[in-house]
Each structure stands twice: as structure tokens, then as C-alpha cells.
Amino acid sequence: MGHGGNVIQELTADHREVEELFARIEALPAGDGRRRELADQLTMELIRHAVAEEEYLYPTVRRYVDGGDDLADKEIADHSEVERMLKELEGCEPGDGRFDTLITRLRTSVGAHVADEENRLFGLLAECCSPGALDELGEKVRSAKKTAPTRPHPSAPDTPPANKLLAPGTGMVDRLRDMLTGRGRQG
């Protein structure tokens, strides 16, 4: 969840972590209960990552990157689609055929989003921001992930200022629920 480095290094490390979780889910047999645990971990990582990007990365893209509003809007739309799928996945068990379908759809959608960020957006960001600004943004993203929600909330705001105001409280409630249910514990 917190890897270190500038914002591009931090978010790229998150991307690799998510790819590994997808691979671990897909490597297990269809009805294996560990798939649910890994899907919960995947959900937690994707939500924290998305919230941090929406709070800090995309406002920076809007401000400094040419055509940044359109880029940020597209990335936020991608997040909304993923969050709706994660909400649906929350109600599925590994033996349910919808579980595999959703994992496949999620992997495709997340993969396209990751490729777009890594092959286009990160390069544009690096061209217009100083190394110091990218380092500072990395710190802000790491901090946001610590207080971000861990469950999908598709109707929650995804742009400032409302997202920055509501995400920490929602995150606290999510983490309390996770603690009480044991969700996300890696055994």
C-alpha cells in the first residue's frame, strides 16, 4: 500500500501489486474460499489507490498537463466503472459464476486503465512537474491511502473538495468494519 518514491513510482508499484493479486486469484480453483479473501484484498488496494489518485493525482493533471481536464475525466470514469464492478463482486462467492466473470472484466478494465496511465499520463506528468513536486505528490498519495475507504462506494463524490472531506470518515468506518469482520487480514 505504501511503497515510497515519487508519485509515479508509488502508483506503478501499486499497479504491480494489483496485477499480482489478480494472478493469485486466477491461480486458485474456482470454488476455493481463498479467492474471496484475495478479492477482498484486491478491492481494498484498488479503492485506496483510486481515492488517492482522485484526491491528488488528477487535480495535478488538470492543473499542469495540457488537456488535463479530459485526461482526468477519462481516468475518473474508468475508476467509476471499476468501483461498480467491485461493488457487484462484493456480493459474489468464489463458486458463483458471476465471480469469475467479474474478475475477468475487472482485470481487463484495470489493465487498460493501468496501461493508459503508465504509457501516457505518467509521461505527461513527468514532463510538466519538477522532481520535487513529484516527490511531494508521492507523499500526499501515500498519506491519502492510509485514510482512504477500503470498500466500494460508487455513489461517493470522486472530485475535490467533497471527496477530500468525506473519504477519511468513510475510510474510518470501512476500516472498523474490516477489523470487526476480519476482512483483509492476510494469514
> Would you list the SSEs in sequence order as H and E?
HHHHHH
> Biggest β-sheet: count, sense, barrel?
none
Mean pLDDT: 86
Give the DSSP E fraction (strand runs of 2 or more residues): under 5%
Structural class: mainly alpha
How would you sum up the global shape? elongated
Radius of gyration: 16 Å
First-last Cα distance: 17 Å
Count all strands and give the number.
Answer: 0
Number of helices: 6
Helical amount:
over 70%
Low-confidence stretches: none
What would a concise description of this structure say?
Helix content is 77%, strand content 0%.
Layout of helices and strands, plus pairs?
Elements: H1 7-27, H2 34-64, H3 68-90, H4 97-128, H5 131-147, H6 162-181
Helix pairs in contact: 1-2, 1-4, 1-5, 2-3, 2-4, 2-5, 3-4
Characteristic key phrases:
187 residues; 6 helices; 77% helix
Question: Explain this structure to me?
Answer:
- The chain is mainly α and 187 residues long.
- The chain is 77% helix and 0% strand.
- The chain contains six helices and no strands.
- The protein has helices at 7-27, 34-64, 68-90, 97-128, 131-147, 162-181.
- Helix 3 (68-90) packs antiparallel against helix 4 (97-128).
- The protein is elongated, with a radius of gyration of 16 Å.
- The two termini are 17 Å apart.
- The mean pLDDT is 86.
